[in-house]
From TrEMBL:
The active site is at H68 (proton acceptor). It comes from Hibiscus trionum. Binds 2 calcium ions per subunit. The lineage of its organism: Eukaryota, Viridiplantae, Streptophyta, Embryophyta, Tracheophyta. Keywords: Calcium, Disulfide bond, Glycoprotein, Heme, Hydrogen peroxide, Iron, Metal-binding, Oxidoreductase, Peroxidase, Secreted, Signal. GO terms for biological process: hydrogen peroxide catabolic process; response to oxidative stress. It is found in: Secreted. The keyword Thylakoid does not apply. This is Peroxidase. One of its GO terms (molecular function) is heme binding. Its cofactor is Ca(2+); heme b. Its EC number is 1.11.1.7. Removal of H(2)O(2), oxidation of toxic reductants, biosynthesis and degradation of lignin, suberization, auxin catabolism, response to environmental stresses such as wounding, pathogen attack and oxidative stress. These functions might be dependent on each isozyme/isoform in each plant tissue.
Length: 320
């Protein structure tokens, strides 16, 4: 498939990524559960196959859960925690409320993992593996998921509100928010390609289709038909106009044609420093797949809890 890079090329890129990982992240390992839960990856993959077969969109939803988890105090499964008497969690933060989904898929996979390997595998690692499987199942590239994360014992709604990039952000703000997580502008541009799959709510793109000037007029008119100036906040539109259910590089072709759905999407191709990279990805799906895979490895390495940090939750929604 043209949209999938060669194994040799991807392996070479990931080797460079892994060699450049920080000492803190060196505690993660691809074979962390080789002895303690050898069937882990098969269990997660089978769970995602069932979920994607029921609803193809869930691949995008699980990828988004992983992204939103990692951007709030690291990849620690804090997004999966329900509120408690001692903290208000991330599920009802503005970026997640009414839009984050797929929690029940992770619950089911976790139950299956617990049945095979009791109190062994973290929810954070399950979410990381599920995100990769979701992408692969809808036509995207694979990558090596490093394992050994532990689960947070708290969550922060305020951190989720402030640390997850906004769909209304401009390019400098996006670059800054990614830099705060150790990711550069290339990572930003590649990871934004996750919007090649999935949908967005009217409330997240209304201001763009009514107010932005860097937008194709026919595209804006089409989107206004399902997103009125008032009301219809939960009406959905595809983030990729051409192939919203299949992973590929058409998202970048939309940006070049000024058909990015979110303001933050179109900011990647709006006369700024990421324009050239967007053009490259729009013309070269192999380069996009390689960069996306490498960026997913880097994002998965954001501030993991390891060793004796955190815990291994038995239920991803609650503390032990």
């Amino acid at each position: 498939m043209a949209s999938i890079m060669s194994t040799v090329t991807l392996s070479s890129i990931l080797l460079i990524v892994l060699l450049s990982s920080s000492a803190a992240n060196a505690q993660l390992s691809a074979n962390f559960y080789a002895n303690s839960c050898p069937n882990l990856q098969t269990i997660v993959r089978n769970g995602m196959i069932q979920a994607v077969n029921r609803e193809r969109r869930i691949g995008a939803s699980i990828l988004r859960l992983f992204f939103h988890d990692c951007f709030v105090n690291g990849c620690d499964a804090s997004i999966l925690l329900d509120d408690t008497a001692t903290f208000t969690g991330e599920k009802n933060a503005a970026p997640n409320r009414n839009s984050a989904r797929g929690y029940e898929v992770i619950d089911t996979i976790k139950s299956n993992v617990e049945a095979a390997c009791n109190a062994t595998v973290s929810c954070a690692d399950i979410l990381a593996l599920a995100a990769r499987s979701g992408v692969v199942l809808i036509g995207g590239p694979s990558w090596q998921v490093l394992l050994g994360r532990r689960d947070a014992r708290t969550a922060s709604q305020s951190a989720a509100n402030s640390q997850i990039p906004s769909p209304f952000a401009n390019l400098p703000a996006l670059i800054s928010s990614f830099a705060a997580k150790g990711l550069n502008a290339r990572d930003l541009t590649a990871l934004s390609g996750g919007h090649t799959i999935g949908f967005a709510r009217c409330t997240t793109f209304r201001s763009r289709i009514y107010n932005d000037t860097n937008i194709d007029t026919n595209f804006a008119a089409t989107r206004r038909a399902n997103c009125p100036a008032s009301g219809g906040d939960n009406n959905l539109a595809p983030l990729d106009t051409l192939t919203p259910g299949r992973f590929g590089n058409n998202y970048y072709r939309d940006l070049v044609a000024q058909r990015g759905l979110l303001h933050s999407d179109q900011e990647l191709f709006n006369g700024g420093s990421t324009d050239a990279l967007v053009r490259t990805y729009s013309n070269n799906p192999t380069t996009f797949s390689a960069d996306f895979a490498a960026a997913m490895v880097r994002m998965g390495n954001i501030s993991p809890l390891t060793g004796t940090g955190g815990e291994i939750r038995r239920n991803c929604r609650v503390l032990n």
